[in-house]
Amino acid sequence: MARRKSARSGKARSEPVQSDTENIVQNGSARTNIDLMNPEPEGGQFLRFSSFPYDIRAMIWEEYLSNHRILHIAIENLEAPARNKHQRKKAKKATNKTSSIQSPYRVFLDERYALSKLFHVCSESRDAAKRFYRVQYLCTYRWGYKTQEGTLYFRPEFDTVQSCVTADLFDFASNLFRLDSRYVGLQSLAVPKQCRVHTLMEMEDRKREVMKEVLLRLQSVSFLHMQEKPRAPPRPLRTLAYVHSMQQAANRNGTGTNNNDQQPRRPKPRTGWEPDCTGPISTCIPSFERLSADPRKLGNDHTRPYFSFQNPVHIALSWFRLLESLEIFYEHGPNYRFMLSYETTGRNIATRDQAVSWVQGQRKDFRARAASEGLEQGEWVSPAMGFWLYPIECVGSLVNEDGGLKTAKEVFTGAQLKDNMSKCVPELCLSRLT
Hints:
Residues 1-37, 250-276 are annotated as: Disordered. It contains twelve helices and eleven strands. Helix 6 links the parallel strand 5 and strand 6. It has an eight-stranded mixed barrel with strand order 1-5-6-7-9-10-11-8. It is 33% helix and 17% strand. It has a domain at 55-77 and 102-230 and 274-367 and 383-431. The chain is of the alpha/beta class. The chain is globular and about 65 Å long. Helix 3 crosses helix 5 (123-132) and helix 6 crosses helix 8 (205-217). The model is unreliable at 1-32 and 230-273 (pLDDT under 50).
């Protein structure tokens, strides 16, 4: 028995002692080698909270709710020909059930977490949330194939609406203004697609006046570019990282020049999207925190914005054409920006564990491809879940020498747009993961 114990102790001495970090990597889901930029959720309990005076508790509730949010809203016209009679009747009945405003459309809130947690804590927190979100509008919660009738709780000073620009959107925004006791209404709008200017200009005069009133109240307009990952992307043979690394090797050997002008060749664009966890990744959490500048070191090819299928500048051009057609001129115009993010399948990241797991999967795939294709792997930067906000000035002037708007062919595209935006340091908006 003594001999056995001695052997076991000798074996223990011969084995290297694992660090705490290695144990976490092997056994835990929160692998510490991935340091997310997103703030950690504030945990813990404060048992003496109920002993505070009501006014102090109300201030704490309000402070907890004072977060910026981006709300994905879809507006479906009830008279659309694609809907049958039964669907229109059912939708109209649900829409008019508790709303005092009769609307010819149905509002969908496409969020996985449509309500703040304070609605489910206690009656006092629920009352505080209802006071904070002073604009309340009947809507339908929708996530995937699941729908549920509910209420849109809206705070104009903190909430950004992401929605396509249609006539119904302006009517909806006008209703938000009428329901707001402070008469603020919609202040921030994120535009995901180009405006159909001709369709909007065909509206009757009354609706056009409503549209002008809504536009004049806006304080912030963002033009969205969401880089989506294809469901079944073909395996690219040459990636930007591969071309860039091969070009560097060729330059070191003195062979990386064109035959005509003896200038280094420009790296070719990617043939497919390869998420490298440097650009911010979209999540299903509507609330976020804003940093005035992305503090991470951004300088290699994997950190530059990449546009694969749609130029966000074209969305901005269509917006300004709409303003031009309506003859809208601002004394102090809205703050225009470009919102960039990378889409995961179904925006399914909600927690830090899910974010870490997703990043690890991407890095594992990249390492495998790096080994098989000879890619140079640079230093990983801290991944971020959220989106970038670029100032509109980073894409150059949208006005030509005659003072008119440029055409789609005259603005920066492709490599020019990418290089211009790479020189700007964007704001970084971080999702408040749970």
